[in-house]
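Quarterly update, task 2.4: iron/sulfur cluster-bound model.
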Amino acid sequence: MFKFDDKIAIAVSGGKDSVSLLRVLAKIEQKYPKAQLAAITVDEGIRGYRDEALEIAAENCKMLGIEHHVVSFKELYGYTFDQMIRRLKQKADDRLTPCAYCGVLRRKALNVASRKIKADKLATAHTLDDETQTFLLNILHGDVLRIAKEKPVTDGVHPKLVKRIKPFCEIPEKETALYAYVKGVKFQGKPCPYASEALRNDARMMLNMVEDKHPGIKFTIFKSIERIRPALEEVASKEGLGECVECGEPTTERLCRTCQIRQQME
Ligand code: SF4
């Protein structure tokens, strides 16, 4: 996933997974003097939740001597996430959960911020649990080609897309939590107020129930995804990637999803 002289941006939300990743990469980086680390936190503008996480992320970065950048929805999109959700909820045709919007907006924010600091790679703390949940969600949404795109190391498919890596993709969430507790890492425990509405919760419960009965099943699912992905990639590669006519960010459509959300809201 890494080269010895990479500048690596780490997406740090302040939760246990991202703060553990920050610690682990900081430790590894000490052996590679030409490598550089920088943390990026997305401030969505979620009242009573993100403020605390921002403080925790900043505190961890300061302790490890890692530069910390904050990118906010307000500065990037003109609205906080709370304001966006209030507007979107007024639309009669809105059937998506807040996380479905937030995921799209966060992805763009992280890419823009990583590009701005000239990072070679963007590391996210997606765990084995996240990967298997995302796989199941893509099936439930009928969006199977996303399985090809959301892989542990993305291809350099567009010069404006910073390569994404997921160093924890084979690490169960319980282990990152254990690491954080054992190391005494400070992280945010409070859940996001919008999280309970997400379909991801049902996917999580379903997978945890099966894993309890059949230990190791999440690894089996992960390996199965790896095996079917090449076939899906062949189909997905035909989609092509252009630039959004509105903001210029990479997209497979004429208007990228974030600009579609803005239009829908306005
Ligand atoms: Fe965004 Fe959903 Fe995560 Fe909250 S739980 S920060 S709304 S993706």
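Highlight for this quarter: The first helix runs from residue 16 to 29.
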